[in-house]
Amino acid sequence: MTEALVIKSNALIEASYRLSLYEQRIMLACIAQVRRDEPLTDQKLYTVSAQQIAEMTGTKIGTAYQNLKAASERLFDRRVTLNEAPNGRGSSTVRLTRWVQEVVYQEAMGSIAMRFSTSMIPYLSQLTEQFTRYALSDVARMTSAHAIRLYELLVQWRSIGRREVEIEWLREAMQLEDRYSSIRDLKRWVLEPAIEQINEHSPLLVSWSQRKTGRKVTHLIFDYSPKTPNKPIANSKLTEKEIVKQARPGETWEQVRIRLSSE
């Protein structure tokens, strides 16, 4: 069976929006159904069932069923702010649009069906450059919407293995608004849980650090690589998996390796 893939324009990956965990699950399950060998139109209806969500996420079908309708109704009202053209070309005009134009709850079948909005189509179909691809299973078992968003932002630069972002840009991208305004709260409620889940459920192992401008922490630096659980780090008996498991917030792999070796 072919693995379900999520493919998005980089403009959509870096867009500003907020979706709950179940809204993310529904949206990604639909995006993974988009065919790459035929044009996508706004008339195409995509269906996601509670059974599919339960199997995908490893949760009970009763829990999936209860959350499906509520999440699909909220999804209809969700909007997204895009800041560049689908393939990275064109003007820098800001586009404010919606994810979907229609949501149909099929109660008898325990499923929902939806159509993408017309303006969303170019960011999901016929992408020839400036796009990000990953397996739906990479994020299926994550229980944090922030973890899914952060994973997408990191996997976008998968070949480089490092990404530095401004904290204010990240806050805007995740639409945190006035929540977690202090760096301490941001770390505790957003970054640390997200990175823990990425390290547990995805194919990546991530460490992070911070950079100051003057006395203020302004940037976050993420370093990551594909998991090789049985491969020891150079000059160390510790594996990458052990390094990440024992890392303290803000430590790089090298810093935690040195600390553990000295202990």
Uncertain regions: pLDDT < 50 for 5+ in a row? none
Q: What is the helix tally?
A: 9
Q: In this structure, how is the largest beta sheet organized?
A: 3 strands, antiparallel
Helix/strand-derived category reads alpha+beta
Radius of gyration: 19 Å
Number of domains: 2
Q: According to CATH, what is the class of the largest domain?
A: Mainly Alpha
* Number of DSSP-assigned strands: 10
Q: Beta-strand percentage?
A: 15-25%
Q: What spatial order of strands do you see in the largest sheet?
A: 2-6-5
- CATH level-two architecture of the largest domain: Orthogonal Bundle
Q: Report the CATH superfamily of the largest domain.
A: Winged helix-like DNA-binding domain superfamily/Winged helix DNA-binding domain
Keywords summarizing the entry:
2 domains; 10 strands; single chain; Arc Repressor Mutant, subunit A; three-stranded antiparallel sheet; 23% strand
Please tell me about this protein's structure.
The protein is α+β, with helices and mostly antiparallel strands. It has 2 domains: 1-141, Orthogonal Bundle (Arc Repressor Mutant, subunit A); 144-263, Orthogonal Bundle (Arc Repressor Mutant, subunit A), CATH 1.10.10. It is built from 9 helices and 10 strands. It has helices at 10-13, 21-31, 50-57, 61-77, 145-155, 167-173, 183-201, 240-246, 253-262; strands spanning 5-9, 46-49, 79-82, 95-98, 100-106, 111-116, 131-135, 162-166, 204-213, 216-226. The strands form 4 sheets. It has a 3-stranded antiparallel β-sheet. Strand 9 (204-213) and strand 10 (216-226) form a beta hairpin. Helix 2 (21-31) crosses helix 4 (61-77), helix 3 packs across helix 4 (61-77) and helix 5 (145-155) packs across helix 7 (183-201). The chain is globular and about 60 Å long.
